Amino acid sequence: MIRILVFVLLILALGSGFAWLADRPGELSVVWMGMRIEMSLMVAATVLVALVAVIFFAIWLVRTLMLSPHTITRYFRARKRDRGYQALSTGLIAAGAGDATLARKMTARARGLIRADQEPLIHLLEAQTALIEGRYDDARRKFEQMADDPETRELGLRGLYLEASRLGASEAARQYAERAAANAPHLAWAALATLDHKSQAGAWDEAVHMIDQIRAAHVIDRKEADRKKAVLLTARAQSRLEADPRGARDDAQTALKLSDGFVPAALVAAKALFREDNLRKGASILEKAWKQEAHPEIAKLYVRARSGDSALDRLKRATKLETIRPNNPISLLTTASAALDAREFATARAKAEAAARMAPSEEAFLLLADIEEAETGDVARIRHWMSQALKAPRDATWIADGVASADWQPVSPVTGRLDAFEWKTPVVPGSGEVIDAEAAIRSLPPVKPAAKVQEPQKVATPVVVTATAPVPAPVIVEKKVEAPAAPVATPEVLQTAATAEKAVEPKPVARQAAKPAQAVTQPSKAAAKVEAEVVDPFFGRPPDDPGVRDPQADEKAAARLY
What is the pLDDT of residues 454-466, one digit of tens each? Predict the structure, then answer.
């Protein structure tokens, strides 16, 4: 564009000059070597311009003839280089596509057309070709050569790092990544790989220093860098919670500033404050985190913040959480669990059923089963809730790379990736069916009444016990035997029984003598009650509970002397 502009300006200048001369005609006379030459001024200007043009053309022609060998050589060299770069480009594309045959062919052609010391990409093509052909030792040697060259050092170190990672040589991979990060701090892969290795080793101080360098170099987005630093500070706070609660509190609070609402950081900060007996500030942190996310671990720590609280105190704290996040399944389940501990079954049942209607889950139905067992002890109702829990979606937990964990961890146990754990519902085959909680609540069987046992007729058969020694009166021992019909009471038997009972218990004998048939045909009420309690099945108490009676002991207690 500039050349065209210069050419146009030159033409305009010449045209303007000739026009100016045409408007001002004149004669030019030149005497040279005895000859007199006369011409007009316009002709003289034209001859001068033509002479200058001829001179420039002659100079160009001579220069071209003198430089023609070099020009021809450069032309063929450029053509060869272009063909080499074309082969190099085709080879790299073939290597990326996995075409080993074409990549090997293009590698040989590129090496023949371009020297490796002039184009370092030939080493990369050779290494990639060796990788797709399975010649890993050759590829590793090529990467080592590239790592020794300052121009291709980072490229070679990355290749060596990937190979070490593929072979599982974590220590070698760490060294390659640290070497690359030291030479080029702006390399994202090297900085992040070094950060992951330091995190896996638990070197939290070095990892925090590394993330500060990454933030300063703008390797990753600032928001992502803040999140990673918050995870590292939380991990360091967890590690020093027992030995240094103050330092753990400072790290956790800094993490909360970097990542607002980060649940693990809020939990660690609250635990550290509780250890310092600062209950109010710890509860404030948990309440703030609860407003952003209703997390079960926050609710559990908040409700049991003070170890000396009674069940009613814990219920009040759970109710306060529910007022912060009303109509939330986690809030309702927290209140229901606290109400169950406080033995307020009506409140516990209402909250648990409301949570099940909002979001049917395994925890909600298991809590209903616990309430049923504590309140009614009805086996059918307990089994009903257990069956619903088996069909309901599983409870959310911490998951990273397909591995579930009950507690949050800073790195993945599978890949070692930082900040890999997420709070979500695990996918379990055979569970998580879409169930109708309302229908499950309506289909709850009624409470089964206490079973009435058909009492067999008992008859007290008097047996006269004789003895050689003189006794004041004959003693009659009652034996409980089953008989289809009561025997006939003879006057002799009745008189003997009345005499014996009068000797032992004077007052009841009169009531027994007044109604002899009833005393013979019906067992005592205490004996019938003992028999009913023995036959009735028992559920929910340990064998050594005081409520369990020994049938043999009751039978001995039921024996009466007449």
Answer: 545 544 444 444 4
Check if the beta carbon of residue 120 is closer than 8 Å to that of residue 149.
yes
Q: What angle do CA 431, 429, 441 make, to 5 degrees?
A: 5
Helix boundaries (H) for 456-505: 491-504
Centre a 10 Å sphere on the Cβ of residue 107 and count the other Cβ atoms it contains: 22
Assigned token pair, 54: 């001829």
Q: Give 158's contacts (C-beta < 8 A, 6+ positions apart).
A: 176, 180, 189, 190
Specify the amino acid at residue 551.
P
Q: Which tokens sit at 126?
A: 């050779």
Buried b (16+ CB within 10 A) or exposed e, 515-537: eeeebbbbbeeebeebbeeeeee
pLDDT tens digit sequence for 187-203 = 888 888 899 889 988 99
Q: Which residues are within 8 A (CB) of 198 and not within 5 positions of it... i.e. 6 or more apart?
A: 206, 207, 210
Candidates 154, 146, 147; CA nearest to 126 is 146
Q: Cβ of 277: how many Cβ atoms within 10 Å?
A: 8
DSSP state of 152: G
Helix intervals (H) in 376-473: 379-391, 437-442
Both tokens of residue 135? 């010649």
Report residue 541 as tokens. 């108490």
**Cα end-to-end distance, the chain, whole Å:** 136
Pick from 451, 438, 401: which is nearest to 422 by CA?
Answer: 401
> Residue 317 has what pLDDT?
93
Angle at 272 between CA 269 and CA 275, to 5 degrees: 150
Are 342 and 374 in contact, with CB atoms under 8 Å apart?
A: no
The whole-angstrom separation of Cα 348 and Cα 334 is 9
What 8-state DSSP symbol labels residue 401?
T
pTM above 0.70, yes or no: no
Percent of the chain with pLDDT over 90: 34
